[in-house]
Amino acid sequence: MSTTRQHWKPAIVRLVTGRYPTALAAVASGSAVRGEDKQHSDVDVVVVGAFEDVPGHEAIMFEDWPVELYLHTPQSLVDTANRQAVEDRRVLLPHLFSTGEVLMDRDGTGGRLRQELADIITKGAPLPSSDELDVFRHRITNRINDLLDPRPLGERLFAASRLAHDVASLKLLSNGHWLSKGKAIHRGLAEVDEDFADRLASAWASVGAGPEALIAMADESIAPLGGRRFG
């Protein structure tokens, strides 16, 4: 934990109880909550109550802690979680609420919601349809083509980032794994196939010297779909 900040929990409890005195339940999550606090770690807090204008989101600083606040009623939390699972194949809210540390649960609402949201995660992401796989195949082919010709370093790096993201997303979805954002993408890939995750990271890291390794990973990812396809 950072030596410049006090432990996260007393501050976050003060924030929730002072700002949302009628809240029914609140859960905190993030690296600090897991005991992996770094200098710039923030705390994600989902607060459930009889709030208006939900879902609500606000990012604030509180006692030296960056805090991401997610406000929901019990119904809006479940509805938003289900919608994001279907439309985006992401389970940020279920993950935050079902695996975080309970700050309050006045009437059992929090416990019931944690189980309901955990069930969403357990079901796994819907496997991609044949049409979705065809879109991935076409898109990854286009990304490969962007890297085949010589380009300035900046163009190559940004093109490579899009290709690596698509390759990762295809791998995750093809294995029934939920999609993620940022650093959590690599964590998800490692859960599916640690060797693939490490090889993709290494290939992406080498793009400055040349895109060949990343292109090879991209070809590997779409080989089961029939390989490259343009049009």
Key traits:
231 residues; alpha+beta; 5-stranded mixed beta sheet; 9 helices
Word description of this protein:
The structure is a single chain. By secondary structure, the protein is α+β, with helices and mostly antiparallel strands. 53% of the residues lie in helices and 13% in strands. The protein contains 9 helices and 5 strands; from the N terminus they run αββββααβαααααα. The chain has a 5-stranded mixed beta sheet with strand order 3-4-2-1-5, sandwiched between helices. β3 (56-62) and β4 (65-72) form a beta hairpin. α2 packs parallel to α4 (109-123), α6 packs parallel to α9 and α7 (184-192) crosses α8.
Précis, in short:
It contains 9 helices and 5 strands, in the order αββββααβαααααα. It is an alpha+beta fold and 231 residues long.
Overall mean pLDDT stands at 94
Q: Helix fraction?
A: 40-55%
Strand order of the largest sheet: 3-4-2-1-5
Q: How many strand segments?
A: 5
Give start-end ranges of low-pLDDT stretches: none
Class of secondary structure makeup: alpha+beta
Strand content: 5-15%
Write the layout of secondary structure elements.
Elements: H1 8-19, E1 25-29, E2 43-48, E3 56-62, E4 65-72, H2 74-87, H3 92-99, E5 101-105, H4 109-123, H5 130-148, H6 153-174, H7 184-192, H8 194-205, H9 212-222
Parallel strand pairs: 2-4
Antiparallel strand pairs: 1-2, 1-5, 3-4
